[in-house]
Amino acid sequence: MNDAMSLINELHSEPREYLNNYLANAPKWLLEAFKIVNLKKGTTFIHENENVDTIYILVEGVVKATDYRVQEIAYDYTRFYPVEVFGAMEFLMGFDLYRTTLVTETDCRFLCVSKDQFSRWMLSDIHAVLEQVKAMGVYLLEQVRKERLFLFLQGSDRLFLLFMEIYRKSSHRGTCRIQLARKDLSNSTGLCIKTVNRCVSQMEEKGYISREGRTIIIDEEQYRRIKAVVAEKIDENEI
User: Fold this and answer.
1) Any idea where the HTH crp-type domain is (predicted)?
2) Structure confidence by residue, pLDDT tens digits, 83-126
């Protein structure tokens, strides 16, 4: 068993099952070509408008996508959790350049392969192509819906929506620990840091969140309360 398959077998059930399905028809040469790459928190590993040369499959950790196009203001518009394939969308859409900047928000582990090897596999495996197109479609739909909601939400409601998303994707045994600086929360919501500080303090006072130092903690009951607040302003099918 090669290193890539050994790593996959060590993962939690959900990412392991996803990768086993995604790579179900992958040839031996591809599995042997994968390299395991570990990156520290805060590493920019893909830069917008650089040539697509490597495909990164996120198997552990959290990655954020950052947009700098408007007056060079950083906007962290989404976060990715395992399993996510970076560079695949550019390949499928025929782009030679990466379309966004990606930064590790935690220590991360990836399976990496060259674009040429990835394209060789994709062009011979319809199952993998369909799985990738499905994942890409789900992501684009979720992103458009989120951005549309943000147009009509202000202040704490934007933070509530962000906390709901993070809770759903990273809670463990009913509890979510959010270790984001105020600047990160500002970048993710489009709110100024002063507004973020005020909203977080109000949320804590009202019991929607708890804090341990700089860590924001949301338990299952608090998540339900946050969801109820958001549901008062947004169609339940949208959340």
Assistant:
1) 153-222
2) 999 999 999 999 999 999 999 999 999 999 999 999 999 999 99
* 3-149: CATH architecture: Sandwich (2.60)
Q: Which amino acid is at 25?
A: N
For the chain, the distance separating the N- and C-terminal CA atoms, rounded to the nearest angstrom, is: 42
Q: What DSSP element (H or E) covers 200? A: helix 193-205
From the list 144, 64, 142, 59, the residue with the least C-alpha distance to 100 is 64
Among residues 44, 41, 43, the alpha carbon closest in space to that of 107 is found at: 41
Where exactly are the structural domains of the chain?
Answer: 3-149, 153-238
| Tokens 């893909």 found at | 46
CA atoms 168, 173, 175, 181: torsion sign: negative
Rounded Cα–Cα distance for residues 195 and 212 (Å): 20
Burial of 116 from C-beta contacts in 10 A (0-12 / 13-18 / 19+): exposed
What pTM was estimated for this model as a whole?
Answer: 0.81
Bridge partners, residue 9, by sequence = none
Distances (CA, A) of 2 to 8, 121, 135, 218, 233: 10, 18, 26, 39, 51
